[in-house]
Write a structure and sequence with these properties.
Chain lengths: ~475, ~775
Amino acid sequence: MNPIRFHINGRLTEAFVRADMTVLEWLRSNPQTCGSKEGCAEGDCGACSILLANPGSDAGDFGAVNSCIMLMGQIEGCSLITVEGLSPNESERHPVQVDMAENGSSQCGFCTPGIVMSLAGLLNRNSNPNDEQIHDALAGNLCRCTGYRPIVEAAKSAADKSIDRLAKLAGSAIASDDASNVIGNEDSVFFRPKTLTELCTIRSEHPSAALLAGGTDLGLGVAEAKTRWPMAIVTAGVGEMLQINEYDDHISFGGAVTWERALPYLHRLYPSFATMVRRFGSTQVRNMGTIAGNIGNASPIGDGPPALIALGAIIVLASVDGEREILLEDFCTGYRQTVLADDEVISQIKLPLPKASQQFRVYKISKRYDQDISTVCGAFSIEIVDGIIANAHVAFGGMAATSQRCPGAEAALNGNQLGMELIEAVSAAINAHFSPLDDWRGSAKYRDVVAANLFERFVRDVAGETVEVMAL
Amino acid sequence: MNIQQKLGNLTMQRMHVGKGYAHDSAVKHVEGKAIYIDDMPELPRTMHAALVLSPVAHGSLNGIDASEALALPGVIKVITAKDVPGHNDVAPILSGEALFAETTVEHVGHIVAAVAADSFEIAVQAARLVKLDITPLEPVLDVELAHKNKSYALKVQHLIEGDAASAIAGSEKQFEGTFRIGGQDHFYLEGQIAYAHPGEDRDVTVYSSTQHPSEVQHHVAHVLGVPAHAVDVQIRRMGGGFGGKESHPTIIAAIAAIFADSEKRPCRLRLRRHDDMMATGKRHDYVINWKLGVKADGRIVGLNAECLANAGNVADLTGPVITRTLTHLDNCYSIPAADFIGHACKTNTVSNTAFRGFGGPQGIVAIEGIIDTVSRKLGMDPNHMRAVNYYGPDTGEKTPYDQPVVDNRINDVVDRILQTAEWERRRKEIDAHNATNPLLRRGLAMMPVKFGISFNLPTLNQAGALVHVYMDGSVHLNHGGTEMGQGLFTKVAQVVAEVFQIDADKIKITATNTGKVPNTSATAASTGSDLNGAAAFKAASEIKARMIEVAAKQLDANPDDIIFADNSISGNGKSMTFAELANRCWFNRVSLSAAGHYATPEIHWNAATLKGRPFYYFTYGAAVAEVAIDTLTGETRCLRADIVQDCGKPINPAIDLGQVEGAFVQGMGWLTCEELWWDKEGALRTLGPSTYKIPGSRDVPEIFNVAILDDKPNHENTIFRSKAVGEPPLMLAISVWLALRDAVSSISGGRLAANLDAPATPERVLFAVEDMKQRVTAGSE
């Protein structure tokens, strides 16, 4: 067992702690790194945001993450920057810090360090962001005082001034091969396999160990002091699972590919999906969370599955005995239940490439546009051949214990022409299939009405109408 | 455009006052170096505490079994009501509001016990191991049921002017209706926290994230059973307050202090978000039943309003919250006959408390909703109905509570906003757009705000300050106000800098401390800079007067000719630096320290009749909001907002602008996406940002034109003729709610009023749309 090694603000550090301690708890235990704050301990407010570069990544390729739900075992070999690292001395403040301080961008100041980090992360990857990209970067940061405008303005004015600010803080990044395989202490030990074979072997030897991908859900339990992970297997270092490969008829995302890495590919292939993924958690969450984790977690309100099911995604399950492929729609068997065996992992997600005849849209309805969990998520995929619909896939999340297809709606679509005349039959089929629940995100009645209405939105959208208030 | 450019001619002639200085802690904020209580280095042997909360909304508390918790290694002590050494009471106004539940639990999240342990994690785990023996009783979760059962936390408040019933009965047209207005969690980013350090005897120093250090001091003393002098409370800064840290920090501080006092070890109690949202109060949700009588031309003849405020399980601050609702139901409108009644409904939910606006916003939502409803029923433009009812600009018309409306700026703000927001053009465009019956409809609304400034209770309108000038010319500034992000400390420092004509960075802003300035009021009711700025002005001016005497001797000049300017003092053609003069004063044994005390003049209030002059002055604002709604999903978006806010002659226009923008967005959240959702058992299920959605950066209107009404000094003699700004602009966000109603109304061509309560979540908007479609189809009304 090895201590956890990482760079923080350019300095190589070893932490002799349990692997399931949150990074924020570790940071805040040291008065020198108390700038990162705990606002919610659920990865939603962003006051704890820090920057992280993965082992072996290009020096300076930092992205913002939530330290409150990230576990120490996840940062082995990584390089971290905290707000303290951005301004090592008075003459060396990050342009975001300078411009925020001058522009009235902080009031109470408690969210400010996290916002500074998110914007520094944004400008590190995009020196000339537009308003939408700034909002994407800030979607995981809440400010209760300012009304955000001075923050957005500071982000704009600081752009272009931040070239190469972060690279030198990366330290001599630990090569991925040098990261330790077993880390933590006797209370909590994490395995960090580097190959799929190693992963499958460890998985078969320790079937009770948690599989930890991005950790945005497993880390949450620790942050709330409700769960401990005495043993976990981190998938983030498995080389094969970090790959994204394009083939003639499909694209394959490795099981450790984060949503943020997948985003440009999704944007090119299925722009509607990408628009939804941008509302998926936040930049911080997408920098950690993986497609496979979103699937394996088997939540009824996961935002990935409805779209992926409608697109006919296939997942590859690997174990020491080899691999098997199943349709994603067959993966979940009930509330938080799946066909994943104790010794298996999701090693790949295969997404068919779009066809010229295909129309695909996914719509997420929530109380707030950004970083909210769907009240209803509806995905529609159809092919139109000679004006006639074929191969309709209609899938919903938030409407049942699992994300699932609606065969009745698909039957009502197939063989017909897409148009307003279909609304009654398709809406009725949707409402006949689902019996949603009441909760804080919406009543069953609201879910029913919205799910049915989303089909009308789809028809109008395909016809070229502007169908969302955010598009105005 | 940066902030200085935006302020334009608002930055003006004085050296410091009127300048848009950055928040004093801005650099520390961005560097992560500003120290909040949880960042304070931990003293050796510090204990960490956690709360044991009731999982039941209402029940008999038969017993508490802490044996399993106490058996956990690292657990130090578990305390309950029995362990309170003094009084188990933290009522801010009345008495009998227990710190720990005694024989009954009255809401989910009711504090029953607390655990202290060697670490935060152990304390949290141990708290979960404390077993509560509770026999459940039927809870009252609904404000209307409480009213029906006559279950009240306080006696009724009744504001009567004229004979409203007769006036309404005799009016040309009568209308009635009900508004349901949701509550709001403060969602300060820094949760409630206190850190108590025991001293000798039974002294305790408490670092408390509080807007009201004096109240924390007095309650901690009361709970410990020691005199107030044994308790010292300090707070340098809060990570947001918004009213949520006005009365409830006493609970947190008292528990930390009990542990510190009994174990003689420091104790930190920090609530995690989940516990904070369960155990501490929120903005009052209201049901307001109304009847209005009008003339055919829209003029209001009489208004009857029955306001059912959800007090939660105890009164807390509900009394004055209701008073402010009743005194803001008129908003900008002359109501000749009024019958306003306010009930503090006692329910089995967490005690509601102060929240920016303090009852005023609910009253203004009601009257603006009434005008929106009635004007449409009269076939009248809502703005026309507003205009015919505005208080006369120069007539000194009286409000229903008898205060004359003088220096009336309603027309100033309304005329300006209608013009700058291009009302006429946009109204036509939006109507034309909606006439094509689109899926995405637009709405537009304008509304003014008049808000009374002063605590309703005259006693509270006082403040103290303590200023020291050291012999090197540096200045120590202290006052009773607290810094929660609103920039109060910066503004008060500007006042002192103005008095001494020295650079602001010569002035050390120090933590609010009950040992330096005693018996202070909460930093609340928007009065922070009015009160503390004036007190600091007095203290600094007193020192300055003494310094002038010394300078006159030193420079051989007439005291009247001594001039303080640019860090130096001159007279008789000679000069010396401020530091040199300070040193001379010390040398000549002249005191360089002074305490200032300020009491707001001219205010009086009869709490029995609800009549008097509770407010030193009114402040005004107006807003125009444009929204879009999706008639298939109920999703909404505010596309543009234009605001003008009266700040008198601002002490710091940059900080005031930040208050205006921030308050507007916070108000928008209250009325749109922020929904508190309780399950059928009475448990709040929106307990963190994953479920309780405050506005994010993208929710701010893309076009957001915010202006301060320029060149309008306060006609009352406030500090440098400035006006309060903390709360009033929150209510300007009611324009967003009205615009949403307008968008729904557009389905009927604007003819019918939307049945849309607050918050206007996508669900409520969609159902209002469906309701409107049905009414249009049915050809109703």
